Each structure stands twice: as structure tokens, then as C-alpha cells.
Amino acid sequence: MSSKAVLRRCVTCRELLDRQQLWRVIRLAEGGMALDQGMGRSAYLCPSQRCLEEAKRRKRLQKALRCQVADSIYAALEQRLHPTSSAGAEAR
Ligand SMILES: [Zn+2]
Known about the structure:
Layout: E1 7-9, E2 16-18, E3 23-28, E4 33-35, E5 40-45, H1 49-57, H2 60-65, H3 71-81
Antiparallel strand pairs: 1-2, 3-4, 3-5
Bound molecules: zinc ion (ZN).
């Protein structure tokens, strides 16, 4: 193992996890928001429905990033949890 684990805290449940296991939401230095990659203030979130919903309801990302978080950011993260939800596929 050559790479060291970098721990980050989920904005919702406050759990410390390896950065690679978390979603990263970035408030870009040049303006706007990005996911995963970019330069700027970052907030981290567990890739789970619970933490995503809670973050949205309690405006955790807004508080951590000190800016508005567009619905499209939440929608994009929800898409990652349910890539085929619009098709209504229940089978696995
Ligand atoms: Zn969490």
C-alpha cells in the first residue's frame, strides 16, 4: 500500500471515512459547483440515501460550503444511487 488513506468527514453523519469512499462536492474558486474534481472549498458526503436526504433537508452542504447548492447537484448525486430509477427497475 503506497497511498495513504486521507480521512474526511461526512457533512451529515459526521463519520470519518476514506476520502475515496465519499462524494466530494466542490464550490469552485472561479464560481459554480462541481462534483468529484475541482479547486475550491469542498464538502464530503457518504454515498447513501440517508445521508443525501438528510443533507438536503438540513442544508448541510449549503452550510459547509457557505453558498447555495442547486437542486441539480442533489439530483446528480441521487442519480448515482439510482442510475435506473426512472425506469422503475426493481430487479437486481
Ligand atoms: Zn454520512
